[in-house]
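User: Show me a protein chain along with its predicted structure.
Assistant: Here is one chain, sequence first, then structure tokens.
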Amino acid sequence: MGDLSVNSSFFSSRGGSDPPSVPPCMSVDKLLPALLECFGIILCGYVAGRTNIIPATQAKGLGSFVSKFALPALLFKNMVLLDFGDVIWPFFFSILVAKVTVFFFVCVLTLLVADRESRFSKAGLFSIFATQSNDFALGFPIVEALYRNTHPEYLQYIYLVAPVSLMVLNPLGFALCEVQRRRTGEPQQQRKLRVLGSVLLQVVKNPIVFMVVIGVISHFLLAQKIPPFMEEFVDGLANSFGGAALFYLGLTMVGQLKKLTRSTVVALILLITAKLLVMPLICRGMVEVLDRGSRSSMNHTSLSNYAFLYGVFPTAPSVAIYASHYNMELEVVTSGMVIGTFLSAPIMYVSAWLLTIPWMDSDPLASALQHVSFNISIISLLALVWSVAVMLLSRKFHRIPHIFTINLFVAQLLACVGMIAWIFMAEQDNFLGQVLTFTLLYGSLYSTFIWPGESLESVCSITSDSTPLNTTCVLLLTGERLPNTIDSAFFYGKTQQCASTSCLLVEEEQKETDRQNTDIQSTRHVLVCLLLTVSLLANLSSCLWWLFNKDPGRLYLELQFFCVVANFGQGLISFAFFGLDKHLIISPFKKRLVSLWQGWGQEVTGSAASEEIRLTCTQFLTYHKEQCVRDIVHKKRCGERSTTETFLGSDLVRWLQSVGLSSGPGDALAYGSRLLEGGVIQHITLQHSFQDQALHYRFTNNKQRSNTKDKMGQNAVTSPLFL
């Protein structure tokens, strides 16, 4: 594919001219620590939310503080201190034009291809998703790390550009969402003037917009200086934004990927592509066009690079709040926010590093390409060893489509081994060894482009109803002839007996679990195949570019580095989707962590926890049980001649929120867990804790609660619940 042809002529034009040696305009060495700092805080927030250390209700409070106090104070401070004399206005208008272009491109495309029932809401929210960046929480620390020592004036563009989305583009998206409300028959909005008034009111009420306007006015009234009596107060609020915003971003990511379904995958990939690929390219292109009269070519190049990095900033979490407010396209927006945030980190790092390369000589470039290949191969090799081990231990490798997936893993692993071996073999005078290494490397690498197609074809055969021949072939290969039958439907197969006389509900649960697992696995395989297809297209573009361009230029060099990362970093993609098996890794680890946490908590506050369970159960039995039974309990058949009264865990979670006993899904889950620990409810097989899923539970009688009392120990003896 050309990514190993690392000689000096590869990096220079075919005419032999090298790029000029000019010092870089950004400090790339400080970017990695900044990324680790930002994403480390995000990870802390995610862990806090995932383990319910900070429940959803408290997270909302932190979000309100960040968006209504800390960020407005930060904007006000910087608007007052902003030096408009240093602003290069062509750059500002370039970003403005780029955002408007992407906004209308996504909007028009969505209106053309989306279904008529929801096209206006999709057009509004998707356009906002593609243009509103996480400028302050994530973007500002990155820009500060890159340009603080070389171009500190670039930091102020964050405060100039960010309000463009809030005051110009977002209202257009809100208007489309309001139009969708009217079309779906909701009575809140009936007239166009009311729609316009509602949108304008939302913009004016936004404290971020309000403080930007106040800050600009104060800039001229206060002569670019905050009065001493309020300076410390404003600084205190403004300085609290960074860490709190990143921590809140991690909290908002909890549980969002569960909402991802096969029907949203295509829209999600297109949106992420528009945000992380199309937006930075258009931003850079607009600067190249509109800033031709810059003060110097070096400054012009630096601004175009800055525009590219700005475009890579991921979507702001506030877009998920908009989707929740309108109750539209929440699954796509929330999942896209999570995936886009974590994809942006390697893209920003690699892009910033590559943008310094044109000022380097050809020999260091060859060495740099080799080092990148070697380092990414080692990391990917470790990830693939783990992924293969997980696949083998989970015993999924003999199933379709996993049988193709493990072949893909092995091909990726051998490609990494071949790349590592090539680094050492290329320096030795061993022709036979070089040939064998080259064969291993490219044979494995090309295999990684073939196996995703096989995997995708198997997924399509599983999810499609139009493949009876394949199903019959699998049946003949895995089944056995059944004797003493004249029914053709039971001529060939495997014998199955119910293991329990009351298994109908258990079978229903198992079917639902299997269906969810199948959807999740299918979605994962489709996503992996699509991401690897991007790598294949990049390699194809690299070959065609080299063949048909006499002077490939530095963009070709950037494409080559992308191909290296994409080719030998495939293992990281495989690990992300398949390396953390739920049943083999996550669930046991979670149970162990919960048991340790509960054990420590019982030692410290054991009696307090039992008292909380007792009070919850007493309150529920006294005031709420009868109404709950009437609302969610239904009689269901559990055997040929037997029935039972049950309810779903997900139904109880929604009911607890609807009657005000809990303020969110997390609180409702904790409330239901206390009811189960107190013996008020139980799973029909006693094998599951309380979960917000389609699992069947039932209310217990006095005798069953007495048995639960014995299990809970002496702490429960004095509880009037069990008398």
